[in-house]
Amino acid sequence: MKQQVIVVGAGASGLTAAVMAARSGASVTIIEHSKKPGKKLLATGNGKCNLTNLVVPEGAYRSAQPEFPQTVLKKFPVDQTLSFFENLGIMFTERNGYVYPYSGQAVTVLNGLLFELERLGVSIITECEVKKIRSDLTLLTSDGKKRADAVILAAGSMAAPKTGSDGSGYELAKALGHHVVLPLPALVQLRCQEKWYKQVSGVRTEGIVTLKIDGQKAASDRGELQFTDYGISGIPVFQISRFAARAVHDKKKVEAELDLLPVISLTETEELLMERKKRFGSRSVVDFLNGIMNLKLIPVLLQESGIKSGTVKELSQAQIKKLANTLKEMKTVITATNNYEQAQVCSGGINTREINPETMESKKIKGLYFAGEILDVDGICGGYNLQWAWTTGVLAGTHAGRGKND
Fold first, then answer.
1. Which whole number is the average pLDDT over 248-260?
2. Taking Cα atoms as reference points, which of 151, 133, 115, 174 lies closest to residue 30?
3. Smaller CB count within 10 Å for the chain: N or C?
4. What distance in Å separates the CA atoms of residue 11 and residue 84, rounded to the nearest whole number?
């Protein structure tokens, strides 16, 4: 008799796990509580699906057990991921290391997975709630009891709940004795204390954002910063947000320093401003930074530098120095992140010390496997979280499908 595998969750990792379990000879059923599978996958990469990345910088993956994601990812790296999708009929295009389907549409990646699941005879039950998983791998669902030889829990995190990730998987795992590292929003916007953000809402500018926790540098990233009416956004902000979220939760002092002129040093900035004072001395101070900074930002920069009015030639050397410092190290107090609805992923999740990194099987319940965002692993922007989904899905599906013969 075939190994009976049930996959809970029809996201990127769950669909991949189901493919591999079926290829391993198992009879596979996917249970999904949403109306359709792959809803979050369709939203990735702004609908273009950033499948993976050819460059994996240090710190691309974060976890309370930092060595865990590195061990797992070696089992099914990027080159094998590309081969997997090529076999599903997906062509790729690559831009600066970011890999997308050549179609530019996430739906074509989802279709490739669904076509393969149909070929393999995998059953997908939608709009079905899993209420409990017993230790004997009996599932109590809104569609009745279901018995499995192996269960793959790929129910996602708490991020973007409208796509189906509502945190229910954590509760199913906790009921089986697993521990959960507190999930918090990650790859998300940061809310700030200052009142002037409403003045600069909508401004985008190249910059460096440096996160400081209790006065110590915790993370930094460079790219296009976006100002909102409540704080800061943009890819660089997303990259550091998981550290800010944990620090704010722990009631630590959390600040960001914004370098709005990353192309030159602090000394060069002072020299530039002194030279402009000589050339444009008759201008109003409000026009001093015209041609350098976005016009909506200038009044705020002057305000933060203690410069109120007058002409440029009236600026003292101390005021020039202060303005240079503001341009290079404008401080803002972080009070919160946006909530789970705006977050792309979560930091936190199932404690990875309770998972076998070779197979993704639970160390507590034989036959229970985990895949994807439900685990305490989160990646930076750029296809890293999807690579985590593919890798863990392949490992969990392959080993769950083999069952006793594994």
1. 98
2. 151
3. N
4. 17
Please give the residue range of the domain that contains residue 249: 189-337
Could you give phi then psi for residue 210, rounded to 5 degrees? -120, 125
Please name the residues in contact with 107: beta carbons below 8 A apart, sequence gap of 6 or more: 42
Domain presence at residue 272:
yes
Q: Which single residue is written with the structure tokens 């803002």? A: 332
111-137 b/e (C-beta count within 10 Å ≥ 16 → b):
bbbbebbeebebebbeebebeebeeeb
Output the pLDDT for position 290.
96
* 178-234 pLDDT tens trace: 999 999 999 999 999 999 999 999 999 999 999 999 999 999 999 999 999 999 999
Q: Of 337, 370, 392, which one is at a domain's C-terminal end?
A: 337
For the purposes of burial, counting CB atoms within 10 Å of the CB of 103, is it exposed (0-12), middle (13-18) or buried (19 or more)?
middle
Q: How far apart are CA 275 and CA 268, in angstroms?
A: 10
Percent of the chain with pLDDT over 70: 99
Give the HSE-up count for residue 22: Cα atoms under 13 Å, Cβ half-sphere: 22
Query: Residue 135 CA to chain centroid, in angstroms?
Result: 32
pLDDT score recorded for residue 394: 98
* In contact, 342 and 189? CB cutoff 8 Å: yes
Which amino acid, one-letter code, is at 262? P
Give residue 160's pLDDT: 87
Handedness of CA 41, 44, 46, 48 (dihedral sign): negative
More confident residue, 383 or 45: 383
Statement: residue 382 has pLDDT above 80: yes
Name the amino acid, one letter, at 208.
I
**8 and 149, same structural domain?**
yes
Residue from 377, 382, 395 nearest 80 by CA: 395
* Residue keyed to tokens 């189906």: 164
Please give the structure tokens belonging to residue 314: 């009236």
DSSP for residue 305: T
| Structure token digits, residue 246 | 């944990």
User: Does the pLDDT at position 110 exceed 70?
Assistant: yes
Please tell me whether residues 214 and 170 are part of one structural domain: no
Report pTM. Answer: 0.94
The pLDDT of residue 405 = 63
Q: Which helix (H) or strand (E) holds 133?
A: strand 130-133
Q: What is the CATH number of the domain that holds 52?
A: 3.50.50.60
d(CA 36, CA 127): 8
| Count: domains in the chain | 2
Tell me whether residue 241 is in a domain: yes
